[in-house]
Amino acid sequence: MERLQHEEFTSIVFFTGAGMSAESGVPTYRGKGGIWKDYDYEEYACQDAFERDPDKVLEFHRIRRRSVLLCQPHEGHRVIASIPEAGIVTQNIDGMHQRAGSEEVIELHGSLWRLRCPECGFRKEDFGEVYEKKCSECGGRLRPDIIWFGDMLDPLVMQNASTLIKNCDLFISIGTSGTVWPAAGYPDLAKRSGAYCIEINPEPSGATAYDRVIEGSAGEVLPKLFH
Ligand code: APR
Q1: CATH class, range 1-26+73-109+153-227
Q2: Most C-beta atoms within 10 A of its C-beta, which of 42, 129, 177, 193?
């Protein structure tokens, strides 16, 4: 595969989904070995479930934190981190881009490593395995700062992501099935904004926005594309 002359572009955005971390050992949500095949997200990843049985929801996320703590970023994450001027908009909550050295990461769906208090808005980073339950500010019940099904995305996060995407001239989507909105609309936004759009996925999503589709895995393709 020939090297991408990314220097010819003025603003690159990497748009990543769960497939970006698959080679690190972090399971995707759909497809082979997908999380939602074993867990019903209505039981484990939505506000109603949390109100019904907070301990069950926290235990699900504790297991996810423990497993992600055992995973390492792969070469693909490091390639992205080696292009500091590039923007990163991720749907992932695993923090792998940051652990590979990327500093500015827009996390559309929150983070396994952050807690928030719905009562007072308090937020804190928390890199442990077990979740702290009580808000130190107001005594309310803390919850993972993750966008669960049915949650609204943070408007400021969305605004930052769309501004970045509207102004890029190279948009590289990696490892997303393109099934969850509003993130699924970002490839079209990039295309409409005039960016050259590339998809990297062993099972391409079929989205029409892409100018180039590379059927391959993140860990194999990225080092070849940016060597
Ligand atoms: N490299 C690149 N892509 C891969 C790899 C790999 N090694 N392995 C799998 N993929 C691709 C799959 O082909 C699939 O298209 O990654 C994609 C994973 O799709 P999903 O599991 O649906 O993940 P994602 O698109 O990120 O899901 C979006 O759904 O459940 C919600 O909030 C959750 O952020 C998540 C959102």
Answers
A1: alpha beta
A2: 177
